[in-house]
Every structure is written in structure tokens, then in C-alpha cells.
Amino acid sequence: MIELENVSKSFTLHNQGSAVIPVMERVNLAVAAGECVGLVGASGAGKSTLMRVIYGNYLAASGRVMVGDLDVAQAEPRQIIALRRDTLGYVSQFLRVVPRVAALDVVAEPLLAVGTPIEAARDKAASLLAELNIPERLWSLSPTTFSGGEQQRVNIARGFAYDYPALLLDEPTASLDAKNRATVLRLIEGAKSRGAAIIGIFHDEAARDQVCDSFIDVSAFSPQVAA
Ligand SMILES: Nc1ncnc2c1ncn2[C@@H]1O[C@H](COP(=O)(O)OP(=O)(O)OP(=O)(O)O)[C@@H](O)[C@H]1O
């Protein structure tokens, strides 16, 4: 479902004399439906960068970044938008909060985007918010004023509202209490068993061992090692 072939990424620092900083070279990885692969490696190794390359936020310098039958490295913006709507979900560490949109609608939005009727979308959103222990009195409020942990749980609910065939999870259990952490791990297991291909970054080793089927050490692709 997700397949990277010889992917390289470097950053060009335009404000520093166009210095080119290579981050990773010749990344190869494959994630099948129903499988969860954990990205590991030292801080700064490029785990988040690799995720952003797959999501199409950063452009790969070379190589193929296949998600389903789309090569993200070659795709046009409209294809990336369709991919993010229909195929590839991304739970980042922080919720990008839109002022004045109620938490319930923030969570329901990915379902509405694929044509789910509004009542069904809101029902699913409500059940996820309840499962993640967001008090019902908050559902009609914008998450702008929510605590960090509440915002993270709204973000997770949003990421799991629609059954994406592929999911990127960046630290989905960071700063959650034991009960919510268990819920998130259950959601991940559920997504795997319905066939989602998942790539995750987990600093929480116990969580990582529970849900990941294999690991990729991103440090192995750093240019110094590969050279
Ligand atoms: N937008 C950017 N411009 C320039 N350099 C960047 C950019 N984003 C990341 N980098 C560099 O790429 C390298 C990899 O960063 P990245 O955030 O992917 O590491 P990470 O493995 O996710 O680290 P951590 O575990 O600390 O979150 C770092 O050296 C970082 O400074």
C-alpha cells in the first residue's frame, strides 16, 4: 500500500547561501495492508521528515513514493488533495485548530469530505470523542481553548473518523494518560484489522512494541552512513 524506492531528501537553506543539507539517501520501505511499521532512529535522523515526504508536504529529491497507485513525488497538487481526502490520513502531534469550528465538526469533517451524510458523520464523531473521554459539554466548542491533551485527543478522533486505507501517525500516544493511551492503541489495532497500512513514530516503546509489526531505523539512511 505504501512503497518507497530509493528516496532521497535534502533541504536547501535559501536564507543561508542556498546551502544544501542532505537528510536521507536511498530509503526503501514497504508497508502492506494491515501492517504497522514503526520508524525509529536517533533524534534528528529524519523520521518526521520521511513522514512529511510521504504525505506530500516535502518533495523528495529523487525516488518513488507510492501510496496506492499514486507516486507522491511526481503528483500534482490536486492529486495530493484527493489522496489526503480518500486514501492517506495523517495524525500529526498537534491539532491545527480552526477558530469557531466546534470539536464535533472538526472530527466529522473528513467523513463529510468523502460524502458521508451529516447525521452519520456526527454520530461517528460523537462516539470517537466519547471513547477518547472528551466531555460532551466541550463538543460544541472550538478546540482553540482546549488543553494540550484534549486537543491531541480531538486530533486523534479526527484521524480515525474516516477509515483511511493508509495512515501516518506521529507520536499518537505522547502525553496521554494510561486510559486514553489504551484507547488509542485499540484504535490502531482496529485500523490494522480492517486492513489499514500504518507508519508510526512512537517514542513510547511499549506502545511501539504492542502495535508495530516491524521497524525501520531511519538513521541507516543518513548520508554519512550511506556514503
Ligand atoms: N524544513 C526544514 N529545513 C531544513 N532542515 C530541516 C527541515 N526539517 C527538518 N530538517 C532537518 O532534517 C533533519 C531531520 O529532522 P526530523 O525532524 O525529520 O528528525 P526526527 O528523526 O523526526 O527527530 P525527532 O525524533 O527529534 O523528532 C534534522 O537535522 C533537521 O534539522
TrEMBL record:
Keywords: ATP-binding, Lyase, Nucleotide-binding. The keyword Lyase applies. One of its GO terms (molecular function) is lyase activity. Residues 2-227 form the ABC transporter domain. It holds the Pfam family ABC_tran. Gene3D superfamilies: P-loop containing nucleotide triphosphate hydrolases. InterPro entries: AAA+_ATPase, ABC_transporter-like_ATP-bd, ABC_transporter-like_CS, CP_lyase_PhnL, P-loop_NTPase. SMART domains: AAA (SM00382). It comes from the Bacteria. Belongs to the ABC transporter superfamily. NCBIfam families: CP_lyasePhnL. This is Phosphonate C-P lyase system protein PhnL.
